[in-house]
Design brief:
With 444 residues, the protein is an alpha/beta fold. The chain contains 19 helices and 10 strands. The chain has a 6-stranded mixed beta sheet with strand order 7-6-5-8-9-10, sandwiched between helices. The longest helix has 19 residues. The structure holds zinc ion.
Amino acid sequence: MKAMIRSANLSEEQRKLVLSAIKVIARKAPTFLGIVAKCRIEAKDLGGTAYAATDGKRIFINFDMVPKDPETLASIILHEALHIALKHTEKARKHRYPGTFNIASDAVINYFISERLGLKLPPNVITPEWISGKIKKPVDEVKKMSAEELYWLLLRNGVTEEKTHDLGIPSGSSSDSSPDSTSSSNAPQSHDHQDEEQSDEDNGDSKREDEPSEEDVIIAIERWATIENLTKNREFDPIDDLRLLDVAGKVDWKRILRAKLGGLSREIKKSTWLRESRKLGEDAMGRIRSRSRHPRKIIVAVDVSGSIVAETNLLKEFAKEVVEIARQVQADIVLIPWGDTVYEVLSIPRQKVGDSTILAPLLKHAGRGTNVEPALQKIDEVIRSGKARYGVVLLTDGMFATTPKIQELAINVARRAEVAVYLYTVYEHPHVFSNWIRIKYSHY
Ligand SMILES: [Zn+2]
């Protein structure tokens, strides 16, 4: 067992404590042992508030802070090991607000550790309950969300942390609402990622052989689920936990968006004709022939109500993709920034389509509420009034109340357009956008 602790600078006493924590992991969550064993554990003074931290490679333990009982230390070590295995440090850096992503991933990991693995967490850490207060959603809903989803909801509710804090909870946002029903005045503490701690030999994606991978986590969860199911006979859904850990269902939104909108450049052939005719309605037969000569237009309707506009990196990537696609299929853009209402409708001819012609108008309007109905109405209006081959991209967090009217509008828009893509960050609304191509919009 002693060989399992890969460490540079632990004192004999610290080594004993870590060893007893690892024994707890061996007893309570045996299949995670492999992941923990692959991490290098170091002692580090992180100041008076953080229990531990990781740079995405190593686990730093703040021995002055950590509780001395092995079970709590076990949960702290496992917490950091999961951050490493799930590449949270890397993912956080890709977001506009890495600190916010850190908070989101902490909640997911802590939920997993305490409620799924049954380990005791240290006091004042970020929990689904804390997030629930911030994003004003029921705790049960929060527990079902992935870190990525929580990230968007936190952004929408004004939790915009650029830095990962030692406390885990931003000082600015801890004052406006009670962070945790069980803690009085102290903000929850967490174990955070330290960007500056990258060691010199780590360049980019180079990966040490013995680092845990996301696959390790999947295997661990699945095995654990099986063993626990057999021995404890309790309800367990491994798929659900994979989703919670953000390792399942990754999609490359760029690739799908390109492939789908790229279809606009194809000539309409006889083989696709029957399908197209249903979308066009009565006089489709007469129109089909001339349709490929119509100009191509991509309607880009972006929800600028808050979170998406705050995530400027991703918005830039989106604009870049749209510009590239417009060039490839030689399409004009109709840009519609919307929130509570439709702010404007901008027709951008293909010659003028560029990153800034798309980005600038979107950044200009940053409203508060989201109502998709006026946006869908406007898209419908544009399609009905013009003679073109239309592709539609609707980008939103999907946080709006749905009504039968919205559903009807959405279905009609997708019918009238040649291709309709619903790009969402949080809520998919499959019943509303049933005939749209739905893509989850993320950094992965
Ligand atoms: Zn953490």
